[in-house]
Amino acid sequence: MILYRPIAQCDPVRPDHALTLAGGWCWFTHAEVLVKGGSEGLIPAADIPADVRDRLTAPRADLLGLTMDAPRLMGILNVTPDSFSDGGRFDRPDAALAQARALAGAGADILDIGGESTRPGSDEVPVAEETARTAPVIAALRAEGLRTPISIDTRKAPVAEAAVSAGAGMVNDVAAMTFDPAMAGLVAGTGADLCLMHFKGEPKTMQVAPSYEDVTLEVYAFLEERIRAAEAAGIPRRRICVDPGIGFGKTIAHNLTLIGNLSVFHGLGCPILLGVSRKRFIGTIAGLSDAAARDPGTQAILLAGVAQGAQIHRIHDVSGARQALSIWRAINEGYQP
What is the pLDDT of residues 18-59, one digit of tens each? Predict the structure, then answer.
């Protein structure tokens, strides 16, 4: 396998021959050639094979009714008793609804609602319980008129079906349709959008000595195969986004490598979702045990992802992320009062 990592730039001064990355706010003139075992150096963008170059540059289709030509913030709402950062805070319906309103008011473009923690060491939640945690919250938000797009964070087709019926527009499947064989048909039949994430192992054991020969190539190959599986099931690529699965069966070195190589995933022809919010590796690097204290580190990675053209950013602290993103855009795109 040969991959091409665009060297993304966001400076307003760009050469005439620069190519726009994924129809967004970044551009590139060169790409790094990645092969098993390492890098073969830089080549001009014009030398990238035409089919790959087309995938790297083509504007992305709207997702959840949102254009992908600007960074989008996905606010996390965990209606669980045991999520690593906010477990138990929003598992009551009134608290969940209040937090959803707060996230939307702070500038979330999407709400991602989940009823099963997939933190390291977590146990599987029965379908009926996960559905009871999520679908009523989505239905209540829609009943009160909230128009913010909603994603359901689940590996299970029955949970996804209930959520979509209640008003969710996307299924965020951390198992990329490998956990529940009915998921592909469910998504195809409902017309929902789909996020496919790379996940090595199971939540219970995923952080027990994960290993890869080449993490970037292996994650890319997995996502490429899952996109093909989705297409074969009747889900068009224009309805799919991809997530490299930072922190899911990966060491700190794996995580940092994937973040550094993030722009390579534009070669899949789908929007990129980056989910790093408050994850343990940030705390390890920064020396922070408290998850909420990792928001500044989260924002640093968010901006690193934005600088590589990643379109969707899954975040707990939407207000802080919106502030960081606004300043970044003012610097790189100009300030509009």
Answer: 999 999 999 999 999 999 989 999 999 999 999 999 999 999
First to last CA, the chain: 47
Residue type, 63: L
> Which stretches of 233-294 are DSSP H helices?
252-260, 280-286
Q: What is the pLDDT of residues 290-320, one digit of tens each?
A: 999 999 999 999 999 999 999 999 999 999 9
What's the gap between Cα 85 and its chain centre? 18
Kindly report the number of other CB atoms within 10 A of residue 68's CB atom.
22
110, HSE (Cβ side, Cα atoms, 13 Å): 31
Asked whether the predicted pLDDT for residue 86 surpasses 60, the reply is: no
Q: Is 241 left (phi over 0), alpha (psi -120 to 50) or beta?
A: beta
Nearest to 321 by CA among 307, 334, 302: 302
pLDDT given for residue 299 in this prediction:
97
Buried-state track 191-224, b at ≥16 Cβ within 10 A, e below 16: ebbbbbbbbbeebeebbeeeebebbbbbbbebbb
By three-state DSSP, how is residue 159 classified? helix
pLDDT of residue 316: 96
* Residues noted as catalytic: 279, 314
pLDDT at 99 over 70: yes
Q: Residue 330, Cβ neighbours under 10 Å: how many? A: 12
The phi and psi torsions of 46 (rounded to 5 degrees) equal: -65, -20
3-state SS class at 298: helix
Place of tokens 């195969």: 225
Residue among 200, 201, 204 at smallest CA distance from 218: 200
Residues facing residue 114 across a β-bridge:
78, 153
Query: Which residue, 272, 330, 260, 214, is CA-closest to 68?
Result: 272
Q: 255: helix, coil or strand? A: helix
